[in-house]
């Protein structure tokens, strides 16, 4: 559809490619034009960090704040105990309260880099839905909230329907998830005046449920806005690579590896990723994305630096770029590469090259490492490793060695002092 927004936020969403759908373009745009609008996204605490797949949502909240509104990051301390069944083939593993609390602590570290939680009209709020979900009285909840939901309609939502069509079991626990998410929106509107829920386009049904419930119970007008579910131009799910998720916390994925992920963006994605994941002017994003030949590689460095600066800071971005240039342009080892430190006790009389490749994160298993060697993809100090039985002893590791898997993935191995 063609809609010309009045508000800065909607203009950014449309111009930069964040907008998949909105429940009421004009109504939401007018609300944004009248004053500070609180808006939220819920994040279930299923891991100790979010990954790159969540970055479009985080950037949505960042732009909401930058355009004069109030972001709410809602931690799913309550809903994580149920697990969102949307478009999943199986039930999520249930986590203990301790695991959930630990995961929330890790996720909070990410948001502190992107949002300002200061005590101002547009200062972000960090909330936990366990605050209102943990104390619910089941019978009262069924009577006051459950009566507003039609099972027929819930079964028609694509996220549920796709599971049932494949004849895969959907537990009653999971079936309750969309009711709890709808109730979150109601409570956030009642307690904090929250007017909009954001989410990926797979959350449309859950968001609409919350809007309907809030209208029925409070007679308040609220809105939903979804972002596209991103895949890379070669069809891969955003944030997932052959060696696992690209986590946003440095403990799970080093800033160098994070930088390298963006540097390896395919040519066709550069412009789009610059618009979504950086704050560079759109005209500059488009100019860089349209470059060809060797120039597009420099545009990828600009992308990697900008995204890494937001997530890990300017120093980490500069160090990652310097390491990359050292490794790729000069054939050196680079000071900032992921590093495996071995104690003398671990080394013993020697350690196999296969073990080192696995432990340094360049292969998932010994089988993968041996295949990498057999296909001439593994290198030791830039020389091909021909023998999977190679052993390295203290003499071989008297100075750090560089392991490589293909042309783009590297790690250092050194002996601990």
Automatic annotation (TrEMBL):
PROSITE patterns: S4. It is an enzyme of class 6 (ligase). A motif ('HIGH' region) lies at residues 45-54. Pfam families: tRNA-synt_1b (PF00579). InterPro entries: aa-tRNA-synth_Ic (IPR002305), Rossmann-like_a/b/a_fold (IPR014729), S4_RNA-bd_sf (IPR036986), Tyr-tRNA-ligase (IPR002307), Tyr-tRNA-ligase_bac-type (IPR024088), Tyr-tRNA-ligase_bac_1 (IPR024107). L-tyrosine binds at residues 40, 177, 181. Keywords: Aminoacyl-tRNA synthetase, ATP-binding, Cytoplasm, Ligase, Nucleotide-binding, Protein biosynthesis, RNA-binding. CDD domains: TyrRS_core (cd00805). A motif ('KMSKS' region) lies at residues 237-241. GO terms for biological process: tyrosyl-tRNA aminoacylation. ATP binds at residue 240. NCBIfam families: tyrS. Belongs to the class-I aminoacyl-tRNA synthetase family. TyrS type 1 subfamily. HAMAP family: Tyr_tRNA_synth_type1. Homodimer. Catalyzes the attachment of tyrosine to tRNA(Tyr) in a two-step reaction: tyrosine is first activated by ATP to form Tyr-AMP and then transferred to the acceptor end of tRNA(Tyr). This is Tyrosine--tRNA ligase.
């Amino acid at each position: 559809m063609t809609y010309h927004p009045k508000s800065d936020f909607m203009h950014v969403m449309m111009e930069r490619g964040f907008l998949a759908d909105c429940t009421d373009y004009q109504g939401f745009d007018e609300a944004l034009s009248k004053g500070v609008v609180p808006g939220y996204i819920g994040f279930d605490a299923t891991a100790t960090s979010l990954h790159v797949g969540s970055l479009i949502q985080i950037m949505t909240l960042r732009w909401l704040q930058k355009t004069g509104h109030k972001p709410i990051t809602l931690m799913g301390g309550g809903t994580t105990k149920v697990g969102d069944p949307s478009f999943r083939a199986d039930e999520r593993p249930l986590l203990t309260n301790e695991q959930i609390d630990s995961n929330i602590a890790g996720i909070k570290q990410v948001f502190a880099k992107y949002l300002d939680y200061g005590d101002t009209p547009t200062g972000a709020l960090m909330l936990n839905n366990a605050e209102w979900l943990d104390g619910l009285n089941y019978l009262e909840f069924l009577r006051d909230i459950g009566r507003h939901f039609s099972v027929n309609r819930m079964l028609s939502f694509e996220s549920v329907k796709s599971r049932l069509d494949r004849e895969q079991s959907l537990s009653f626990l999971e079936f309750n998830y969309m009711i709890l998410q709808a109730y979150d929106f109601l409570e956030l509107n009642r307690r904090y005046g929250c007017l909009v829920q954001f989410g990926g386009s797979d959350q449309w049904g859950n968001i609409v449920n919350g809007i309907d419930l809030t209208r029925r119970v409070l007679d308040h007008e609220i809105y939903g806005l979804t972002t596209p579910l991103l895949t890379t131009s070669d069809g891969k799910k955003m944030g997932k690579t052959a060696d696992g998720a690209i986590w946003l916390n440095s403990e799970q994925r080093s800033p160098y590896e994070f930088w390298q992920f963006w540097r390896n963006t395919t040519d066709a994605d550069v412009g789009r990723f610059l618009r979504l994941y950086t704050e560079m002017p759109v005209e500059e994003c488009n100019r860089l994305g349209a470059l060809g030949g060797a120039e597009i590689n420099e545009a990828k460095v600009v992308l990697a630096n900008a995204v890494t600066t937001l997530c890990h800071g300017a120093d980490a971005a500069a160090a990652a770029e310097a390491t990359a240039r050292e490794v790729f342009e000069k054939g050196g080892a680079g000071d900032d590469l992921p590093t495996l430190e071995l104690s003398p006790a671990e080394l013993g009389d020697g350690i196999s090259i296969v073990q080192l490749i696995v432990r340094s994160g360049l292969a998932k298993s010994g089988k993968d490492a041996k295949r990498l060697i057999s296909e001439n993809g593994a290198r030791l100090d830039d020389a091909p490793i021909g023998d999977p039985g190679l052993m390295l002893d203290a003499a071989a590791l008297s100075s750090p060695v560089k392991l490589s898997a293909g042309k783009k993935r590297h790690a250092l191995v050194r002996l601990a002092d």
